[in-house]
Amino acid sequence: MQLIKINIAQEIISQGLQNGADFVEVFVERTQTEGVVFKNSRPEDTQSGTIFGIGIRLIHGEQALYGYTNSTEREELLRITKLLGARIGKPGKETSLNFETLKYPKIPIIKDLEVDVKHKLAHLKKIDDVLRSDARTAQVILNFSKKKQIIEIYNSEGLFATEERPYIRLFHHLVMKDGQLQSEASHGPGAIGGWDYIEKQPFEEVCQTLLKQASTTLYAAPCPPGKMPVIIDNGFGGVIFHEACGHLLETTAVEKKASAFWDKMGEQIAHSALTALDDGTVPGAWGSLSIDDEGMPTQKTTLIENGVLKRFICDRMGEIKTGHKRTGSGRRQSYRFAPASRMRNTYIDKGNYELDDLIASVPDGLYAKKMGGGSVDPSTGQFNFAVQEAYLIKDGKISTPVRGATLIGSGPEVMAKISMVGKNLLMMAGMCGSVSGSIPTTVGQPPIKVDEILVGGQV
Fold this sequence. Notes:
Layout lengths: L5 H13 L4 E17 L2 E19 L2 E7 L4 H13 L13 E2 L15 H15 L5 E19 L3 E20 L2 E7 L2 E3 L2 H6 L2 H16 L2 E2 L3 E7 L6 H6 L6 H4 L21 E4 L20 E6 L2 E2 L6 H7 L7 E2 L8 E2 L3 E4 L6 H6 L3 E14 L4 E13 L2 E7 L2 E5 H5 L2 E4 L4 E9 L2 E9 L2 E9 L3
Parallel strand pairs: 4-6, 9-19, 10-17, 16-23
Antiparallel strand pairs: 1-2, 1-5, 2-3, 5-6, 6-7, 6-8, 10-24, 11-12, 11-16, 12-13, 14-15, 17-18, 18-19, 18-20, 20-24, 21-24, 22-23
Helix pairs in contact: 1-2
């Protein structure tokens, strides 16, 4: 069943073109959400709901006009279109549209495992029990979220495309205390899938890893500061590339010349050991799509190859303003946002080394086993990231654990210093915020060696 009638979409588009737009797009969304916050060994908050709305975009030259509503009334939709068109101030033309469904490899529709709320809460309680089996555990917070997003896209090129996206995620947060000492550990797997994905997670293994991480950090000595080589492990370590370099490759930054790489196409911007991709086609991955939020089929995009900048992450407006070709990367949080160029599953590709090879190459340095949160200036790529679990490296071997380590630097500088890349690629789910809202994205990498980076710590 379609979310709106095709004839209404056609009227909106015709109205926009008559008002002088070069291009008109209608984005329709219905999203069902479900969430549970499990805290203090019980469900503290449960939520569910439905989001519905329609976004209308008119493009004239390099000008984009956007409006939205949760009404399906023809008169209201045409009123919004006319208001947007009035800002163009130029008469357009009559048009006749023949919508054709876009052919694309759809994300498989996942049939959710039929389980009730009691079953889900029982599973969360099992996780909570294992994490609380250590007497030092002070708090456990489990945040389960699920949504099924259905979208329809119509535009003045005759496109009609639709997709169903089932997202599911379980975020674990553990706090451990011993006297005045405190540490934290977290894990947040997510995927395109149903409850089966949660059931298949090795929860006991995950819990033991979190307990080990928290207990190791709890008693660790302060990290010494200074410039040194750092080995960053796989998985969420890819957050540094995402934040400090990935955002600089989005045309939302490039079109404003607010990126250090805006004019570096075809140039060496990273060490020759580094190849990085943004791939929307990874089966079941949290950031995967079969079409983007502009209706373009998604793709696997090589951003950097052997250190050379090959492509930018580009949406329709990015193509208009920069001339770079679209990459199926127009994304938005919901109908309330116009699409923008955004990452999907962004990662450093695997290399030729084992983790032991990377560690052995460092006489004295730091092993960042698990990255935490941080901040970055998107205009420069300057970043500051906390390391959740870290160890000193002495004479090419992992030595004592340390706490309080931060990695400080800039994307352009760090990319040039990644000299060794491991084999074991791992990707992790995350949420990314930008001009078009908060969206599911995946970060990832194999273990990497950064020849030198400033490590913040304690003297």
